[in-house]
Amino acid sequence: MNWLEKSFRKKPLPRSFYQRPTLEVAKELLGKGLFVKNRSGSFLCRIVEVEAYLAEDDPASHSFRGPTPRNAPMFCEGGTAYVYFTYGMHFCMNVVTEPSGKGAAVLFRAAEPLLGIKEMQKNRKLKGESPLKNLCSGPAKLTQALGINLKDNKRTFFRPELKLIDLRQDLSDSQIGSTPRIGISKGTELPFRFIIKDSPWISKHVFRKHTR
DNA sequence: GCTAGGATGCTCT
DNA sequence: GAGCATCCTAGCC
Q1: A202 CB contacts (<8 Å, ≥6 apart)?
Q2: d(CA A104, CA A202)
Q3: Distance in Å, residue A204 CA to nucleotide C10 C1'
Q4: Which long-range CB contacts under 8 A does A89-95 form with residues at least 24 apart?
Q5: Which nucleotide's C1' is closest to A65 (Cα)?
Q6: Is residue A82 within a helix (H) or strand (E), and if so which, with residue range?
Q7: 174-193 of chain A touching strand C, CB 7 A cut-off
Q8: For the whole prediction, is pTM greater than 0.85?
Q9: How do residues A9-35 score in pLDDT, each as one tens digit?
Q10: N vs C: which end of chain A shows fewer Cβ within 10 Å?
Q11: For position A8, what pLDDT does the model report?
Q12: Residue A66 pLDDT more than 60?
């Protein structure tokens, strides 16, 4: 059995994984496998960069001002997908954390492509030759590569065609770095972006003293 | 190598 | 009407 067949059969991470403090979940999502199957193909990638958006005291979080039609999925139970449309052309995907009603989530920012790379390249619609590093190194690049859009909003990650799986590549604390989040104007001091420090697949290298 | 600017439309005030 | 959890390209070192 090859890797793809194995990941097809792997059990999703349980709901209890997500129903914990958001910062904990965010760190532990690093190194996990994101499996997606849809019209454009079957994909597996390894998460290398995420950002946490908390339920309370986090002005950058979409949930900061309470529920609205757009952010409603953030108030669903842990393990739900929150996909939104931004800048008039891009989608970003989060997984909801904590018990339902809280309003917290973790944004997937970058991943290492493992399977379905040709289809990812097609989905990205890049002209000419482009390095593999450019496939999933940003939240909107990732959703485009995997063919994620609003139809995935409010789905859960406990499905055969949309799930997060354990790749058995646990990381030590020393391999994880934290930096301020990217592309926001409020809450910029909070170090809630988590990366696999030496991964070449992350979106941006932010130069900072305290990337531990 | 880097930066500035434009694309583009939904969401909430 | 402003702002947006972005990306790509052109133009400039």
Answers
A1: A48, A49, A109, A110, A137, A195, A196
A2: 23
A3: 21
A4: A90/A139, A90/A140, A90/A143, A90/A144, A91/A140, A91/A143, A91/A144, A91/A148, A91/A149, A91/A150, A92/A139, A92/A140, A92/A143, A93/A139, A93/A142, A93/A143, A93/A148, A93/A152, A94/A53, A95/A18, A95/A29, A95/A157, A95/A164
A5: B12
A6: strand A81-86
A7: 181-186
A8: yes
A9: 899 999 999 999 999 999 999 999 999
A10: N
A11: 81
A12: yes
Position A110, amino acid: A
Establish whether the CB of A61 is closer than 7 Å to any nucleic acid atom in strand C.
yes
Instruction: Kindly list the structural domains of chain A, giving each domain's residue range(s) and its CATH number in brackets, ordered by start.
Output: 3-7+17-210 (3.10.300.10)
Which of A141, A154, A53, A133 has its CA nearest to residue A90? Answer: A141
Measured in angstroms, what separates residue A205's CA from nucleotide B1's C1'?
Answer: 15
Q: Is the CB of A48 under 7 A from strand C?
A: no
